[in-house]
Every structure is written in C-alpha cells, then in structure tokens.
Design goal:
With about 600 residues, this protein is α/β, with parallel strands linked by helices. It folds into 3 domains: about 230 residues, Glutamine Phosphoribosylpyrophosphate, subunit 1, domain 1 (4-Layer Sandwich); about 190 residues, Rossmann fold (3-Layer(aba) Sandwich), CATH 3.40.50.10490; about 150 residues, Glucose-6-phosphate isomerase like protein, domain 1 (Rossmann fold). About 35% of the residues lie in helices and about 25% in strands. The protein contains 18 helices and 27 strands. It has an 8-stranded antiparallel beta sheet. A 7-stranded antiparallel beta sheet has the order 5-6-7-8-12-13-14, covered by helices on one side. A 5-stranded parallel beta sheet has the order 19-18-20-21-22, sandwiched between helices. Strand 5 and strand 6 form a beta hairpin. Helix 8 runs parallel beside helix 12 and helix 15 packs parallel to helix 18. The longest helix is centred in the last third of the chain and has 20 residues. It is globular, with a radius of gyration of 25 Å. The structure holds fructose -6-phosphate. Fructose -6-phosphate binds next to helix 8 and helix 15. It catalyses: D-fructose 6-phosphate + L-glutamine = D-glucosamine 6-phosphate + L-glutamate.
Length: about 600
C-alpha cells in the first residue's frame, strides 16, 4: 500500500528518496513521485508504474536539494497516472504534500475549495490537503497544517513542505509515520524499512500528532500546538535481514527461513516444561475470547480457535476484522480480544481492536512488527520476532502466528492447572527440526507445480485443525499465481463443490494421521471416483492413500495441534513454484499490498 519517505539534512535528498521508495516497493504501488526543495523552489517528478520509471527519466538528474518528500501510490481514488501520483500541490505550487490514507469528507471539502477558486486537478482525495494548507497559510506552515487537520475526517500519514520554509511537517492519524533521527539529518517514513539503512533511532508518531522536522532538530506536538515528550526507540531489525541472500524471491527466502523464525517465536518461552509468556493483565476472569484478523492472519486465528477451545478450554470466536467492526458485536468486560496482524497496521484489524477497547474488553496483540500501531494500542502482546517479511504473500509470519497461539493456549491451560501431556512441549521444541525436514520436499513440489501450472482451478480440503490450512493453501495459490482456488472443510465438499470435480480439477488434501483419517480417505475416494487429481499432504502414505492419490507429499509426523505449521509449508512451496513457473512477480503480485492501511 502507499509509502512515504522524506529527508532533510546536509546532503542531496534525491538519492535518499529514491532508495527509500525502493525499500517501500514491497508494500505494493502503481505510481511514484518525489518533490525536492532547492533555493526556495520546488522541483518534482512523477511517474505511473515502477520507481525504475522515475530513475530512467533524464529530468531526475536535475532534481537535487537538501529537503524532499516522495511517495509510492496504490490507487484508491482515481486511476494510477502521473496526475494522480503524489506529491500534490496547491494552486501556486508553493506547497507539496504526500499522503497515505483516505479523507472521508473530501467531497464536501472539495466543493468548498472549488467555490473559493481552488483548481483541483487530480481525482485524488489527497490533493485537498495541499489546497486547504494553502487556504490557511499565513507565513507559518505548522499552523496551516494543524488548522487543516482539524477539518479533515479520515486517516492520514501526511508530509508537507513549503518553498519558503526549511522544514518538513509530518502528521499522522490512522496511518503510520515514523521519524528517523540521524546525524545532522532527519528522515520520515511510513515504514521502518525505508529508514534502516540510515538510522535505527526512531520516534513513532501517534494519532493526531504532528512533527516539525528540520535538519538537526524536531519537535512533536498535538494538533493544539502543545509539545509532547516522545521517546526515541531503537529498531531491532537489521539491513541484512531485508536482503534476498541469494534466493530468487523474498517469498522463497522467507519460506526457507521458517526453522529460524519459528525458533525465534518460541525462544525463551518454554522453560522447565512450563510456558513463560508475560501478559500484562489478569487472565483469570476471561470467559470468552474473540480473535480478529484479516487474510492469512485470519486463517491463523481459525487455527487459534481450535487451540484455545481444546487446550485452554475457553470459548473462542473468530471474526473477520472488517465484519466485526461494523456488526455491533456484543462485547463484555470479561472478554479478551486477540488481534492478529503481521504488520500491526491493518486498518480493519485496528478498527476492530478499538471497537473492543471501547467496550472495555481486554486486548492482546499477536504482532510481528515491533512498534506498529496495533502493538502499541493493545493492553498486552506476544511479538512473533519472525524478522521482516517482505514478500507480499505471508508465509513465515503465519507459522509464527500459529506458534504463538500454541504457546498462548498452553499458557492458559497451565494457568488453570489443567493436566498437560508433556509430549506436546517436546514436539514444540522439535518443530524447527521438523520444518527443516519438510522443506526437503521442495524438489518434489517443483515437479508437481510443473504438472499443474496450467490448471484453471484448484480445491484444497482439510478437516479439523487443518481445515484453516486448506483455506491458507488456497489463498496462497490464488494471490500469487492468479489461479482460482477454494479451500473447504473436506466433508463440506459433498454439499456443493463436488459438482466442480472432473479430470481437470486438482484437489489438495491435507491428510495427517489423526482421529479423522478414515473420514478424509473417504473424501479422497469421492474425488477419485469423479476423476479429480489428488495431491495428498500426509505423514502416513498408507496403501489407501496410494491407491487414490496422484501425488503424495510426505511430511514428518508431529502432534496434531502442531500439524498446521508443518502442513502449511508444502502448500506455500506449491503456490510459490506454480507462480514462478508462470513468470509472475511472486513478491509483488498484481493489485496486492503488503500492509493494508485503508478500509
Ligand atoms: C496473504 C496476506 C494477507 C494478510 C492480510 C493481513 O498472504 O499476506 O492476507 O495476511 O492483509 O495482514 P496483517 O497480518 O499485516 O494484518
């Protein structure tokens, strides 16, 4: 989704802006632009398409200056083209702005501005900011921005420059902005990825806060102009973690990183056969859990429901965050809301969390990005420590989310003194080794991918705790290979999807050895009887499965509660290899964004 980078210092800002934009590329975008201030004049360049288009343009060489802002746009209001790309300007081109988020009352504001003579040239809501600031500007940019922000409904991560002022004004509401504190230079970005190469010292802006940034100092204020004391924090991620390290794509690297990322999630959290996680509030009174999330994180949440109900014995519901926030859910004081999010910035998940907080539920985050908005708004949290996830399709974050949910469920069980089979802890410690083992199926999966790369549809079927794995396998495939795929509980197939099965339909079964094994074999037979092509992911390739399956992907055996971690990995690889064989840009599939910060 849209990205912002700004620079103010003693060096030419253009290379900083271009490099910063490249670090934000993974978030997804369809146009890019920059604006630099030199000798009290603004110079700008905008392009539809990739940042490479900006770099190719000869005019970029003539753009230099010590202050600049830049933006990658993911189209919401208006198609991706140069006119709609940011930065946007006021009528006299004195002011440049870059904006992430959505102005909800932009139609009303546009009407007023147009009546007053402002000429708004783009189809975006964002351009309104430049004109409002122009309207209020009387020699003080900070004042004009704060007056503007008071009129705007909606969300913003906003950076503003004015040709008469050597400063950047940054402001945030509902869309992240982070100030990077350097040596005689300051940066501002919507994502720490764009700051890391220059500084690890950062200040996270909170909602309705403004930063007034010059090359060697900054102040943070609320919209009424009162100064706020904000702490400088340190980013723990390293530049090396953001590199591909010889892998063809970030996604493949991240799939292969899972032995390490899951190790980091469980590290230090199992000691002397006890789960050690610190939750900053009393869990004893919790009578009901609601998990909210989107996309892949929602699939982890569904697995969490099985874990929390079966291991912790606490009634648990799972809700899409986008539905939860608007359906006037019944939330009580003794309810716990768990928000799961890799990025910690997903707008719907954040809104659902706020809804729960408004109703006085306790809140807990399962988050990867340290310092992200959700991680700062929850009462307590479990960080994943999975490292940066750059590939748009979530892989290692998912297995770490499931690991964190296992830890939480066992912890809640322990808190209630319910008996615990220690074997699950033994298996949990072995998980990184088992992941290494399952990654060895990569070669075989490449061959399977070759056989099915031209399929038009796929079905993924699983049961019990592995039903959400089927959903996740289908999501991975559709988002990066553009092949239509559906996930279903295997038994549900008979109630409709079975009509789709013929010799052109590959059906992936997640079929671990457990109490439901014989049932899933019956489901396989139903598919085989209709000439469907079965790919079985299983730890017990017995003769019944061999009889019906075209391909068997053998995975290591593990405790059933942990099996979603192992079983999801071959499905990630299958999606990856099919997409790669189709020459799709796996890390940046069309229309998708890494972090969805708008509704
Ligand atoms: C799919 C994917 C998305 C995200 C979803 C939520 O591979 O990555 O479905 O899972 O947008 O994102 P987070 O977890 O950042 O809240």
């Amino acid at each position: 989704m849209c990205g912002i980078i700004g620079y103010i210092g003693q060096k030419n800002s253009t290379p900083f802006l271009i490099e910063g934009l490249k670090k934000l590329e993974y978030r997804g975008y369809d146009s890019a632009g920059l604006c630099v201030l030199k000798n009290k004049k603004l110079y700008t360049l905008k392009k539809k398409g990739k940042i490479a288009e900006l770099e190719k343009d000869q005019r970029l060489k003539n753009i230099s200056g010590l202050i600049g802002i830049a933006h990658t746009r993911w189209a919401t209001h208006g198609e991706p083209n140069e006119r709609n790309a940011h930065p946007h300007f006021d009528c006299h081109k004195n002011i440049a702005i870059a904006h992430n988020g959505i102005i909800e009352n932009h139609t009303a504001l546009k009407k007023i501005l147009t009546k007053e003579g402002h000429r708004i040239i783009s189809q975006t809501d964002s351009e309104i900011f430049a004109h409002l600031i122009e309207k209020f500007y009387q020699g003080n940019l900070e004042k004009a921005v704060s007056q503007t922000l008071k009129l705007v409904d909606g969300s913003y991560g906003l950076v503003v420059i004015h040709q008469q002022e050597n400063k950047i004004i940054a402001a945030r509401k509902g869309s992240p902005l982070i100030i990077g504190v350097g040596q005689n230079e300051m940066l501002v970005a919507s994502d720490t990825a764009a700051l890391l190469a220059h500084t690890k010292k950062v200040i996270y802006l909170d909602d309705e806060e403004m930063a007034i940034i010059s090359k060697d100092k900054y102040s943070i204020k609320n919209l009424d102009g009162q100064r706020l004391n904000k702490q400088i924090e340190e980013i723990k991620w390293t530049v090396a973690q953001m590199e591909k390290k010889g892998f063809k794509h970030f996604m493949l690297k991240e799939i292969f990183e899972q032995p390490q990322s899951v190790t980091e999630t469980i590290r230090g959290r199992i000691k002397n056969n006890k789960i050690k996680i610190s939750i900053g509030f009393n869990l004893e009174s919790i009578e009901r859990i609601i998990i909210t999330a989107c996309g892949t994180s929602w699939h982890a949440a569904l697995i969490g429901k099985y874990l929390l109900e079966q291991l912790a014995q606490i009634p648990t519901e799972v809700d899409y965050a986008s539905e939860f926030r608007y359906r006037q859910p019944l939330i009580r004081k003794n309810n716990l809301m768990i928000a799961i999010s890799q990025s910690g910035e997903t707008a719907d998940t954040l809104a659902a969390l706020r809804e729960a907080k408004k109703n006085q539920a306790k809140t807990l985050g399962i988050i990867n990005v340290v310092g992200s908005t959700i991680s700062r708004e929850v009462d307590s949290g479990i960080y994943l420590y999975a490292g940066p996830e750059i590939g748009v399709a979530s892989t290692k974050a998912f297995t770490s989310q499931v690991s964190a949910l296992i830890l939480l469920s066992l912890y809640l069980r322990q808190k209630q003194n319910l008996p615990l089979d220690k074997k699950i802890l033994v298996d949990l410690k072995k998980i990184p080794e088992k992941i290494k083992e399952v990654l060895q199926v990569d070669r075989q999966i490449k061959k399977i991918a070759f056989a099915f790369k031209d399929a038009r549809n796929f079905l993924y079927l699983g049961r019990g705790i592995n039903f959400p794995v089927a959903l996740e396998g289908a999501l991975k495939l559709k988002e990066i290979s553009y092949i239509h795929a559906e996930g279903y509980p295997a038994a549900e197939m008979k109630h409709g999807p079975i009509a789709l099965i013929d010799s052109q339909m590959p059906v992936v079964f997640i079929a671990p050895k457990n109490a439901l094994s014989s049932k899933i074999i019956s489901n396989m037979q139903e598919v085989k009887a209709r000439a469907g092509k079965i790919i079985a992911v299983t730890d017990y390739p017995d003769k019944e499965i061999k009889k019906v399956a075209e391909y068997i992907i053998k995975v290591p055996s593990i405790n059933n509660y942990l099996s979603p971690i192992i079983n999801s990995i071959p499905l990630q690889l299958l999606a990856y290899h099919i997409a790669d064989l189709k020459n799709i840009n796996v890390d940046k599939p069309r229309n998708l964004a890494k972090s969805v910060t708008v509704e």
